[in-house]
Amino acid sequence: MRALPATANIARVVERTLSIIKPEVVARNQIGAILQHVEQTGLRIVATRMLQLDRRQAEGFYDVHRERPFFQSLVQFMTSGPVVVSVLEGDDAIARYRKLMGATDPEQADAGTLRKLFGTNVEHNAVHGSDAPDTARTEVAYFFGEADLVPR
Ligand code: GDP
Q1: What is the CA(58)–ligand 1 centre distance, in A?
Q2: According to the 3-state scheme, what is the secondary structure of 105-123?
Q3: What sign does the CA torsion over 11, 34, 101, 46 have?
Q4: What is the model's pLDDT at position 123?
Q5: What pLDDT score does 50 carry?
Q6: What is the CATH topology of the domain spanning 13-146?
Q7: How far apart are CA 77 and CA 125, in angstroms?
Q8: Positions of the chain with pLDDT under 50
Q9: What is the pLDDT at residue 12?
Q10: Are the C-beta atoms of 121 and 59 separated by less than 8 Å?
């Protein structure tokens, strides 16, 4: 009998992750272009909403970065115009969306990633995506209630 690859028995896990389309992309009318990449990747959008973050919301969302030198600049940027928040669902959604996004700094991001295609610099980098299951849960709950999510 032929040996199966070591990963063959590992069940893939359906996950949810939070995506934010950042203000510079919304301002450039490129929401649809980002969501098209998301859907082409096979991730399902199970909730989406546009909103204008206020300073308190942006500071709370990026609380882990409060001591970083770029914190105030990041909050200023994230409140500079509307954003689109979405919940993406699918097998390994968290890692798959991070892969689609690319590295934090668009200059370091792989070709074809959202940050390479749509990002401007390390701060204005087009999109946010949760980085782990616990942060994904917290971040989804930051913007959406369970009743807002439509699994499909
Ligand atoms: P991410 O998980 O790839 O989004 O990266 P981080 O969690 O480290 O950073 C959060 C966000 O802060 C990034 O997406 C950027 O918008 C911003 N950021 C990260 N590093 C820097 C930096 O060195 N300078 C500035 N101005 N912004 C940064």
Answers
A1: 13
A2: CCCCCCCCCHHHHHCCCCC
A3: negative
A4: 98
A5: 98
A6: Alpha-Beta Plaits (3.30.70)
A7: 11
A8: none
A9: 75
A10: no
- Ligand 1 centre to CA of 45 (Å) is 24
Residue keyed to tokens 């690859």? 5
pLDDT of residue 148: 97
The domain limits of the chain are: 13-146
Q: Which amino acid is at 45?
A: I
pTM: 0.93
Distance separating alpha carbons of residues 140 and 29, to the nearest angstrom: 24
Q: How far apart, in whole angstroms, are the C-alpha atoms of residue 31 and residue 47?
A: 14
Contact between 88 and 144 under an 8 Å Cβ cutoff? The reply is no
CA distance 45 to 62: 23
Q: Compute how many other C-beta atoms are within 10 angstroms of the C-beta atom of residue 4.
A: 8
| CA 75 to ligand 1 center in whole angstroms | 11
C-alpha closest to that of 93 among 16, 36, 34: 16
If one residue of 61, 110, 125 were mutated to test the ligand 1 pocket, choosing by the most ligand atoms within 8 A of its CB, it would be: 125
